[in-house]
Specification:
There is one protein chain. The chain is an alpha/beta fold and about 450 residues long. It folds into three domains: about 210 residues, FAD/NAD(P)-binding domain (3-Layer(bba) Sandwich); about 150 residues, FAD/NAD(P)-binding domain (3-Layer(bba) Sandwich), CATH 3.50.50; about 70 residues, no CATH class. The chain contains 13 helices and 21 strands. Strands 1, 2, 5, 6, 7, 8 and 19 form a seven-stranded mixed beta sheet that branches. It has a five-stranded parallel beta sheet with strand order 10-17-11-12-13. Helix 1 crosses helix 2. The longest helix has 19 residues. It starts with a helix and ends in a 6-residue tail after the last helix. The structure holds flavin-adenine dinucleotide (FAD) and ubiquinone-1. The site of ubiquinone-1 has 14 residues, from helix 11, strand 20 and helix 12.
Length: about 450
């Protein structure tokens, strides 16, 4: 019953928002819009209309005026991905995270409803999926990160076969998570973390804490083994928050298996196979599951990966303090698509977009951009219904907290910041080019004594 509801919701979303589903699942089946593509040369061309692309388009269209900024983005809908943790926890509906792309596109920016297929930075040209050549003086890459469910044997097909198999990382599978939590009657509830960089590194465990809390509140906790199987060797990359999260998972009776990487799902037997990383001889372990939440392996998007703009790992090769490309001075990167060594989040995009505007403005005037980005990123680590730890830190993993109290504690205010305030900041400020992260508020709240 719950499965059919969830699949019905999935199908409805698939019909209404086909493009965004496709990017979540395959990144290939791009939809198009009837938008006129009348101009093929721009002072500034942006590729990708997610958080970073739209924020930069808003800033640059305001600065440069009509006809100067073009943005290539194939999807008819814009999605607010941070809400999908809340969708998985039954706190929001998927529909609340989706708005038409035309509603978020700045009015002075020309939307090219197409994909960027080939990059030719030596000739300042991008070739689109429909075969158009788009010329630019300045190029910003904001293509995000690609989800590679297909690299796990048995996926993505397995999602259709088993209602207890879910993933908050795509808009098609996130609506399956809460029904899976509700249907869980005991046994193993397993949550995974892959062996690649991912966006929002806290999200794989946030949903676990919500599920554990739900089981506890609904009389199922005693019969549940809540298990976090992570490829990493630590629970979180920043020591301060890792220490606090260790207290959280130990006090809640959660089992954490480090260096466990999901390689196969057998939905018909409800089995999940993990390779044990660094084991010699190579070891695999098979777990039975009664609920499995998968965080897929991720990579740079194919068209960027296969271009001269990528580093050896497939991410846009960017100077971390200025966001300028290392080899092509008229090319820039923002957000998840870059190799900037910080945690990939919308909060990092916010911290980067003000820096990038200043970098591009300097380059346009023939000046050398100043190093300004400190790696600011943030992860609201929901640890249950009504509580969260707000992690904020820089390139060195040093806490860079906005509020003048210890954010390492689980707090109700931080939960409401994530659930009720951040969506408004995203839609009303970030996407309008008006939010450069909380730096100024941090300085005010620390009486000017913080960085
Ligand atoms: P995206 O917003 O992903 O946008 C990339 C865009 O590029 C997409 O629209 C895509 O269609 C487009 N694109 C891709 N390839 C091409 C191409 N070839 N041509 C043209 N366009 C292309 N962040 C937080 O700050 N806080 C949170 O609490 C948080 N929670 C999260 C929870 C989940 C479950 C998920 C999935 C993410 C979460 N994030 C969170 C991360 C956040 O959503 C991303 O880091 C952010 O969206 C990155 O912005 P971006 O612009 O780099 O990429
Ligand atoms: C943030 O700026 C941001 O981007 C808009 C997020 O993404 C949704 C966040 O989750 C967070 C926590 C921030 C940081 C903002 C504050 C007020 C601490």
């Amino acid at each position: 019953m719950a499965l059919s509801n969830s699949l019905r919701q999935g199908r409805r979303l698939l019909c209404q928002h086909r493009g965004a589903v496709a990017v979540a699942i395959t990144h290939h089946d791009f939809s198009t819009s009837s938008q006129q593509q009348d101009k093929h040369s721009f002072k500034c061309l942006i590729v990708g209309g997610g958080a970073g692309g739209i924020a930069m388009a808003a800033k640059l269209a305001r600065k440069l005026g009509k006809g100067q900024v073009g943005l290539i983005e194939p999807h008819e809908n814009h999605v607010y991905q941070p809400m999908w943790t809340l969708v998985g926890g039954g706190l929001k509906k998927m529909e609340q995270s989706i708005r038409p792309q035309s509603d978020v596109m700045p009015k002075n920016c020309q939307w090219i409803a197409d994909t960027a297929e080939k990059f030719d930075p030596d000739n300042n040209t991008v070739v689109t999926g429909k075969g158009h050549e788009v010329k630019y003086e300045y190029l910003i890459l904001a293509t995000g990160i690609q989800l590679n469910y297909h690299l796990i044997k048995g996926l993505p097909e397995g999602f259709k076969a088993d209602p207890q198999l879910c993933s908050n990382y795509s808009m098609f599978t996130a609506p399956k998570t809460f029904p899976a939590i509700q249907n869980f009657q005991g046994g193993n509830a397993i949550f995974t973390f892959p062996n690649t960089p991912i966006k929002c590194a806290g999200a794989p465990q946030k949903i676990m804490y919500l599920a554990e809390d739900y089981f506890r509140k609904n009389g199922k906790r005693d019969s549940a083994n809540v298990i976090f199987n992570t490829s990493l060797g630590v629970i979180f990359g920043v020591k301060k928050y890792a220490d606090r999260l260790t207290d959280v998972y130990k006090s809640r009776g959660i089992t954490v298996n480090f260096k466990h990487n999901l390689i196969e799902v057998r939905p018909e037997k409800r089995e999940a196979v993990f390779e044990v990383l660094e084991s010699d001889p190579k070891e695999t372990v098979t777990f039975n599951y009664d609920m499995l939440h998968v965080t897929p392996p991720m990579s740079g998007v194919d068209s960027v990966r296969n271009s001269a703009l990528a580093d050896e790992n497939g991410y846009v090769d960017t100077v971390k303090e200025t966001l300028q490309h290392k080899k092509y001075p008229n090319v820039f990167g923002i957000g998840d698509c870059t190799n900037v060594p910080t945690s990939k989040t919308a909060a990092a995009v916010a911290g980067q977009c003000g820096v990038l505007l200043r970098t591009i403005s300097a380059v346009m005037k023939g000046k050398t951009p100043k190093p300004r980005y400190d790696g600011y990123t943030s992860c609201p680590l929901i640890t249950g219904y009504g509580k969260a730890i707000l992690a904020e830190f820089d390139f060195d993993g040093q806490p860079l907290e906005t509020f003048p109290f210890d954010q390492g504690r689980e707090m109700r205010t931080m939960y409401h910041l994530k659930k009720d305030i951040m969506p408004e900041i995203y839609w009303q400020m970030l996407l309008k080019g008006l939010w450069n992260g909380p730096r100024v508020y941090r300085k005010m709240m620390h009486l000017g004594l913080s960085r």
